[in-house]
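Fig. S4 source data, part A: sequence.
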Amino acid sequence: MKSSFFQRGIYSSPQKISSAWPIPPARYDPEFGRRSFHHALEQCELADQLGFDWVSFSEHHYWTTVAPNPALAAAAVATRVRRAKIAMIGHNLTLNNPIRVAEELATLDTLSDGRLVVGFLRGTPNEFQVYTANPAESRDLTLESMDLILKAWTEPVPFSWEGRHFQYRTVSVWPRPVQRPYPRCYALGGSKDTAEFAARHHLGLGLAYVPFHLLPPVINYYREKCAEAGWQPTPDDILYRGAVYIAKTEDEAQQGVPRWLFTNFNMTMRGGINEAVARLDPAGMNFAKMAEFSFARFVGTPDAIVQQVKECQEQSGAGIIDFGFHAPGLAHDEVMSMLELFGKEVLPRIRDI
């Protein structure tokens, strides 16, 4: 089992900030923002020292994860983290130009000496508003973006592209990825379209925060489609992301779990926007119905978390878990302490799972 440290780029503020999305810019303090970025670098360095296999990043906007451009953060981390892979999980493809994404990712693979891992991400429904993406078209747009990026990395001569969402007279991406034909890639999401795309292109599949007992149907469908495409995925082709709250005692761990409940940690859109998005994108996450949802999937003492990792692996066959340690309101020192405890008492015990 491989382990990844999910660096969410949390803004560390001494004051409680409302969880309603978007967060007003007036609540941002540049000094605390500066500290938060440097704390993120320190956490990544510690994760590398402790033996995490990856350090991962995701894109979010208008929120307390100060990561509107994860490629910038990943580039900074790549110069200070020398062993772990740099996992971009990833750019929000509904908000970005796919050619620009292909160029940025190829640059990161070059800068990191071929240590890049890529996750293709559709994004959360609230963020369709950031650059006015149409929720009803977001899935199809993401699939086309993934197709275009893969071709941009592999086509040896300039080519044109005439798709439904993108039209280019000339595509000729420089630099090229160091890894050939391109870095290990995952399509992220639990839809049939995503699983079919991943299988057809020999990509991994990534799932996030889903309760373990709901994983088998998705993974089994992915495996079936891989077999139809003439190949068999390995454990390294299955990625799972879940939040962690680790403590020395069970009581202490359970006291921290409410920080991860969706009621305290949501991206709920104001007014009727959430309902409108749910109608346009019924297959997406409906945050209005997730009041009791918790991101935390690995909770408890080191012994408990080892057992939960085993359960996750048994249900999904995942060979890599992306662990998030940043509960809302968690101070930098608390994150570092949890990382230390996890690195010393969990990582050595799950490597051979």
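Fig. S4 source data, part B ends here. Residues 155 and 348 are 42 Å apart (CA to CA).
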